[in-house]
Specification:
- Two copies of one chain form a homodimer.
- Chain A has three helices and three strands.
- Chain A is an alpha+beta fold.
- Chains A, B: One of its GO terms (molecular function) is ATP binding.
- Chains A, B: It is an enzyme of class 6 (ligase).
């Protein structure tokens, strides 16, 4: 069992009103020095079996077709932790 | 300028209907072998100036008080990239 993380963020050229709302609220709340905030989604997938290149390719396909709207969003797939590596 | 990432996920004991909806849809879409999906939020903060321990402490406070609802959510703060390290 391994955890694969898919991060989905709006493309840099797409306006992000959620992130802007957070960024504008920060000085009011006493937090200065943050020039930009972008808000996106993080998916944690628990994958059964080994996470080899074939499994990662399937997860990239899944992210591209289902988790992200690639017209306006970029995504990033990475393996975060692998139980097999921890076990002896 | 450095990018600090704040990941906000529902605590493991809190039901995640969004993640469940994704997980249940996967077999229908031809993706098997994924036993669980959790959906959360990812914030990318562009921080002016050096990201030292004091800055990270402030961002942790910001995440705790403003980005996450710590009754039901966990958060993780990490520096993702630092422009200063790339520049000579």
């Amino acid at each position: 069992m391994a955890r694969v993380v898919v991060d989905v963020m709006l493309k840099p050229e797409i306006l992000d009103p959620q992130g802007q709302a957070v960024q504008r609220a920060l000085p009011r709340l006493g937090f200065d020095g943050i020039s930009d905030v972008r808000q996106g989604k993080r998916f944690e997938l628990e994958v059964e079996g080994p996470v080899d290149e074939a499994a990662l390719a399937r997860i990239r396909e899944l992210a591209e077709t289902f988790l992200a709207n690639t017209v306006i969003e970029d995504f990033d797939v990475r393996v975060e932790e692998t139980a097999e590596e921890v076990a002896p």
